[in-house]
Amino acid sequence: MVLAQLGGSISRALQQMSNATIIDEKVLNECLNEITRALLQSDVQFKLVRDMQTNIKKIVNLDDLAAGHNKRKIIQQAIFNELCKMLDPGKPSFTPKKAKTSVVMFVGLQGSGKTTTCTKYAYYHQKKGWKPALVCADTFRAGAFDQLKQNATKAKIPFYGSYMESDPVKIAVEGVERFKKENCDLIIVDTSGRHKQEVALFEEMRQVSEATKPDLVIFVMDSSIGQAAFDQAQAFRQSVAVGAVIVTKMDGHAKGGGALSAVAATKSPVIFIGTGEHMDEFEVFDVKPFVSRLLG
Ligand code: GDP
To answer: Its Gene Ontology biological processes (predicted)?
Structure first.
């Protein structure tokens, strides 16, 4: 279910409930079940949905509702708060500071949009006056360096990589060192991905992270992976200290639920979303406006 539909389903469930003359437990349960179904169809993890349902029941006091309060508003507010809570892990991610060197490492499966997102992230900061640089530590996928080079050249961002070197750790370290010397304030390390979660990939991420000591590790996730999001995000988090999430491909047939799962699995906030293939199709992620839009 795409986000707009999810918002529509939730609004409909609330509308139906507020049409009822008496809001008793049965009516509330029906409304919550309807919302649960909508969230599950949007790929929100079952456990998260179940917890949310329990929390809302605890918050919403049926006696208050009976006393003529605006039922719809009370329940809608509870749902709004719960969805915000799901998307807000409670602590902000590390935020790089302009003119102070930060190393940011990107991780994610192949095809998640990692390389594209690295450039978008660099470009976003460059427009704000930063001095970003890109390091291609993906020696696994043939063509990875060319892709990064092409993107970087288009955006006029310095880059580092090698066609010959097969050790991603060596390239990552060399690139980071070089750009530190050049006083770049945002050194972005693009890493390799695989089609699936493999031991070798996670070991490689661990080594690159250990060698480059990133200030921030960003997990990049394709919004259309659905229910797989939780496990995938958790698997990355077990090998590197993921501190933030970027959800790509929120245009098109994006499902929103995966984002909630990734936040829950990594205990890290979503900081940006990708909304297209172009360099500037990239937005800062803000929990409250996102949830407001979701609820319509
Ligand atoms: P990587 O293998 O993870 O490095 O993924 P790439 O950066 O090569 O991206 C895979 C494909 O997804 C490419 O065709 C990108 O143009 C596309 N892509 C990346 N981000 C977005 C996005 O936000 N929206 C859309 N529609 N496509 C995207």
So the answer is: SRP-dependent cotranslational protein targeting to membrane, translocation
Cβ proximity of 275 and 250 under 8 Å: yes
> Atom 28 in ligand 1: which residue has the minimum CA distance?
277
Across residues 80-100, what is the average pLDDT?
91
pLDDT attached to residue 44:
80
Query: Does residue 195 have a pLDDT over 80?
Result: no
The CB of 197 under 6 Å from ligand 1? The reply is no
Q: Per the structure block, which two tokens stand in for 259?
A: 């984002």
The closest of 152, 154, 218 to 184, measured between CA atoms, is: 152
What pTM does this model have? Answer: 0.91
Residue 207 has pLDDT above 90, yes or no: yes
Distance of alpha carbon 140 from the chain centroid: 24
Q: Is 116 in the pocket of ligand 1 (CB under 6 A)?
A: yes
Tell me what the pLDDT averaged over the chain comes to. Answer: 88
Whether complex ipTM tops 0.90? yes
Q: Does residue 24 have its Cβ closer than 6 Å to ligand 1?
A: no
- What is the DSSP code (8-state) at residue 45? -
* C-alpha span between 53 and 74 (Å, rounded): 15
Strand order across the 186-191 sheet: 159-160, 132-137, 186-191, 102-107, 216-222, 242-248, 270-274, 282-284
Ligand 1 centroid–CA 77 distance in Å is 35
Distance 176 CA to ligand 1 centre (A): 24
Cβ of 111 closer than 6 Å to ligand 1, yes or no, is: yes
Q: How far is CA 5 from the centre of its chain?
A: 20
Torsions phi, psi for 254 (to 5 deg): -60, 135
Q: Which of 204, 200, 234 is nearest to 219 (CA)?
A: 234
